[in-house]
Protein 1
Amino acid sequence: MKTDLTPIDAPSIKSRPVYAPLEPRAGKLHVIVADDAGADAVADMLVKANNRSEMLSAIHVMYCPGPTGTDGSAKLEALGAAQFFRAPTIPALMPRLVRVLSDAHMGTQFYLAGTESLIGQAEREIMNTGFPFASIQKEQRGSTLRRVQCVHCKGITENVATDPFKCSHCGLSLFVRDHYSRRMAAFQGVNIDAEDPGLVPESVVRFK
Amino acid sequence: MSLDFKFAPDDFGGFFRDETFRETFTYTNSNPRRFPFPFDRDDYMYSVNMEPHVPGRPGTAFEHVFDVDEHYIAEMIDRAKVLAEDPLRCQSLPHMTLAGWDVLELIMEAKARDYPQWFSLTKDGNRWHWVNRPLGIEQSFTFLDESTLPYPPFEYIMRQTQGDWTLQDERDGTLWMDAGIATSQADWSVDFDVGMNFHEWHAPVPLAHEKGVFDRALKFLLKLQHGAPVRRFNWTMTVNPLLDTAPETYPKWGPMKATITPENLGQKQHLRVELQTLYRLPRSNAIAFDIRCYLCSFDQIVTVPKWARRLHRVIRDLPEELATYKGFIRNRPAMVEWLSKYDDGAPTSPGWWPDD
């Protein structure tokens, strides 16, 4: 397989989210949701806080290891936040986030860090509860594996590395279209050999 | 409603065609000159190209606000089939119900006014009575009371309206596509795009972002006023008169693109025109976007000599990115070859209309 990495911040994709380094902000509650190397982004953000201990006393961290096994939970737990939770996977993390959101007041600050899959799914839950866009910060770190929805069968394939790839639900060969839905928290996958069934180009590693 | 009425082609003076957009593909235009040919010059590039949507020439697609043409019943039957196969093609986020009522009112009032022989709307306060004779529908309901209609208001009126529609909520200085129906779309997914803002749902379009087309279009649309709708054209190519070219079903219709030969091209290859109109809605302040699809075979287009010459030049000179994005790059050489026989190089007059 050839390797051709598309930079995660490639400017060509207008629907793709914009990421920037996390910055400490004033708030009564700081909800941090992270996975993978997002643990480093959170630690870097806290270094910039001038009221670090005060901030830590109002932080709730939810974290899970990344899709390639990167686990920064020990580092995160050692920061000493008021609440720290380690989930094994993103789906296992979400119910807790939903519970926390049900009590969160306006003025809560959200910090999302790690893979696009984690950031997208957490952002969707937060926005569904009506928090303003401006209260959510996002920093992509670590794996660039993609979460892709098959436009044909609607199934979502996690951790897509190659383009094209086989849909894990219906088995069609899909190319990853540069089109991202925040509602789905996913990129769009479209059948690559619809017009000429069987003519599937060689897979290229685009996401790691 | 939907499929349970009997379509008798002889009713209504035989005006409505009994035809199909799938399998047998019996769709055709009785009068090709009625087709809204979209090119007003011999070349094409993206532009905002909006103009006021005002009533136009009698006997054309522009005569009324909503063009109810000979394909109406057949299109509504096709829509009901698509929705039965895939209910995700019609979606409305919870805060868009009021906009759904707004668009229902807009359509019912306009059709009852412009086509009294087919539609009527009588009102007694909020108690409304709607009659749609071509589809055999009669409905008493209470305006703004969802429980009095068999479907939510947006879906109810969309099952009786040609064209794909989206409803845009305005907030944070942009437009959010928070409701939509698509059963006659050029390869975009309502299910994927619902909830996106203006720049997000246009993301896959090449060249236009760099030209600032979407920034200008958004600025223009945010100023859209109630009672002053606007329109523009878009277009692409479709093999066979398929209304429903959805990405969802691409594996089904994609292979048809590979069936074009020099012999069948004139009959199978269709120019697909979207007459897009935009309306500001009065209560919700949302913007309704109507994407009305018209299909015309190359055989029928070349019966108008000016259109034949012009289509040849437009397709021949179109930038490669656009032909790729519009999905006809593989058949472009065959189209240009076929059309060249109808282009003698004579100059064409400005504007869309046929010369004679």
Note: The two ends of chain B are 43 Å apart (CA to CA).
Protein 2
Amino acid sequence: MKKNDMIETVKGFFNIELRVNGEKKELAVKNGEFLLDALRRHGWKGTKKGCDTGDCGSCTVLLNGKPVLGCLVPAVTAHGGELTTIEGLGSVRDPHPLQEAFVEAGAVQCGFCIPGMILSSKHLLDSNKNPTEAEIRKALDGNLCRCTGYVKQVEAVKDAAKRLRTKGK
Amino acid sequence: MKNIKYYAFPSNVKDAVALLLDKKYKAMALAGGTLVAKTLPDSVETYLDLKNLPIKGIKLAGGNLVIGAGATFDEIDRDKLCRSWAGGVISAAASKCSTQLVRNMATIGGNIARPHSFNIFPVVLLGLDAKVRLQARGGTKLIDFSALYSSGLGLRPGLDCLITEIVIPARTKKWKCEFIKLARTQSSWESYITLFFAAEKKGKALSRARVSVGALSPKPFLAPAAEKAMLAGDASASKAFASDLDAARAGEYRSTAASNLLARFIKSL
């Protein structure tokens, strides 16, 4: 096995290299730490800790473009990867069309599940510009919301798809 | 995971198996990680990440459908070959596993590596007469899926060998199949029972019948009485199935529901 194919712990930490929201980062992650906890400890607190058992989806992040459960991914496995958290999508001044659509549709109540929902939706819209309601519901079936009945969120994704098509993104 | 000293990302299968077999590392392979990432035994000191191994594709080889062990449920759900094989039953089964977020991570190899009642693919692969290719000390082995969990195999996938691909035989391509998962909700990880039915017709009669059952025990099992009755054109095949299920102590609800579902499948042929 090549030397680069293995990382060894140093005083209880692994040093990993990855890109987070487009920027190259070197992070020290604890032995046994999951991606969700590592991200929050390093300041990306938009990624939420809900069930911590892979059931609720509030810890969703995009790892190499795919939505995954941050609470089930050992942090070290992101080594060499490309990570997108909700902070990488837009800002208060310049929100992503998905973020605009969620706010305008009234899809946000307590907001805890929204970062995960938006990242799952982004992955869907990246590969499918005009999803059906069934496709939206399937893409979001791992993101639980305890405030709403999901109707507004499905509407928001449809609206965001329309906005993105109009913008030609 | 607190005792992990090394994380390894091998890029070829031979290196991965060599590391598994090297006692110095006390290694265990993790594929998608959705089942075992949180329950890694304390004795494990090396986490063997399979993500860089070339075991992901889905292809046709010699007329057989070959699914790389690293293919995720989502990839299998979306794959054109899987969708066209045996009426799309393989993709349909993949789509019924838990949630999209889990399907993005979980792999078919990880799903079959250990016997577990609620795993989706064992019941399907048993019914489709699949074979499994293992990379072990001394090379590769192609074994029947039904032998994967037998103690006679002498190998434990992920600990002293790796599953590299699953081979679905060409003869199953045109089988009429159905996969059913009875669970509390569509995305429930647990299920009350999982069923796989398959049939092949020659003229008006059935030339092949398969009934396999999951979720009642860690290993899925075939239902010989039901298969025999189906092949004999016996109208009471669903009653025969109830006797298979009673032998497995399925309980009245599961037994009744599963027998009715088989009757519905037979009616659809």
Note: Chain B is about 30% helix and 25% strand.
